[in-house]
Design brief:
The structure holds 2 protein chains of 2 kinds. By secondary structure, chain A is mostly helical. Chain A has helices spanning about 5-15, 20-40, 60, 75-80, and strands at about 85-90, 90. Chain A has a domain at about 1-45: Orthogonal Bundle (Histone, subunit A). By secondary structure, chain B is α/β, with parallel strands linked by helices. The chains are: A mainly alpha, B alpha/beta.
Amino acid sequence: MAITEADIEKIAQLAHLEITAEERAMFAPQISEIVTYVEQLNAIDTSTVEPALGGLTPEGERTESWRADETEPSLGQKVALDQAPDAAEGHFRVPKVLG
Amino acid sequence: MDSITDIRDRIARGQTTAQATITSAIERAEKLNDKLNAFLEIDRDGALKRAAEIDQNPGKATLPLAGVPIAVKDNICVRGLQTSCGSQILGPYHPPYHATAIERLIAAGAVVMGKTNCDEFAMGSSNENSAFGPVRNPWDVSRVPGGSSGGSAAAVAAGIVPAALGSDTGGSVRQPASLCGVVGFKPTYGRVSRYGLVAFGSSLDQIGVLTRNVPDAAAILEVMAGRDRHDATTADVSVPPYTREIDRDIKGLRLGVSRILLGEGLDPQVLAAIEAAIDAYRTLGAEIVDIDLPHARYAIAVYYIIATAEASSNLARYDGVRYGFRAEDAPGLRDMYRKTRDQGFGAEVKRRIMLGTYVLSAGYYDAYYLKAQKVRTLLRQDFANAFEKCDAVLTPTAPTPAFKFGEKVDDPLAMYLNDIYTVTANLAGIPGISVPCGLSSDGLPIGMQLLGPYWSESLLLQLAHAYQSANEITARPAIYA
């Protein structure tokens, strides 16, 4: 499937990427080529096949992964804010959410 | 360079100290870093402090890795050290916690002496995608070390550390191991905790280890492996004593070879080295069996749908809000996200995020992502069928020896095809090891790969060790000169 620069712009919007016109021009043919390459999978009959979501082995599937519903210590506000680009009054401060 | 057992035993016996060992590693790392660019951070003070603690520990003889210097790929969290993932977007981020694998290695006496350079967010096969410059191959500094764990591979190949951690999502431990002439091991999915490994493809990622010899890989794996309550995808499967099981007569073990996989696209010198390795295994008494993996030719297509889809989701968290780099002068929140991500991510990461976003988007999910996951099931079935006829599968690790810088950067798809033999293991969840098996006529390392059923780490280590013991490669990288 041919991916156009307009497609790239739409995808970039979804992915929260502000790409430049040069990047759009570069990425469109590259992503187009890759998408065309992966479309070879269409030749395979998978009508009776279950998807291998998650990647777990059978032993992994069987492993109990629930814990008791008890409060445990967490990072804590101080540590959580420690590396923030802009922390203020116990919050992560960000630019205003425009309409 | 000494093996892990040598180092640990000499420290335990008082013949040397952890401080002397760590000092040696740090000095070599610093001396070679201009040439190799393998390290993004060398923790001289912290490592020496930890080494002093080991030396003063009366119980150090009981620690399996006492005083052993290790390097850690910069996408694995070590509290107090940087974790850049080879990217600008994490800015000055220093994790407030250790990855579980790191906790276990430190508890066993190992000393983390630095963080290694890698392709950005582990996306790459040449370490040319790092925001901090490429890593150079110790065998020939005009060539790539492979990726994405290029820094770890170079650190081991150059004799700086006996072991380095990497991560392997599509071959990123095994392929650089092959290009740098060292051993690279990816465990079964769920064998080693991913807690503290920065996520790329969550159904594919595993922490792996690079070492110069197989017993050292066994020693590191034995300490790291096992169920972790912080990673729900780790399996409740007991960890065998890999180091104690490693010597085994492999007579009668069956190695599966797919002749189709050894067909087109494979460098003739790599083919020759693999044929020689097959003969070497015959000499050791292994039986060679023909197998077929009919869906292996689709593995790259399957991988680049699933891995990019999962990456697009995993990398959504890098938005400038809670940590790392934040773009300035954004009028609003959405602009901040968009500018931060565009300025903070490199081209390959953006490419993969967009590809992943596309294949997951409304109207395309079934055609691409779901389809790929179904073909993934077929590939898993291929391996299950093969393992009924053989104990392990033997393939090349990489289709060529190390290539020159710049050779493949303009053609992403050509770069992706470097992973052709390695992605199958991540898709199937099976363990794999790369072992050096020869040199090209240019003196560049060639690696062979062994793949086994789930939880067959011990078998792979035995097969690899038997080969390595009988087929020692004495050549050393040019960097030693």
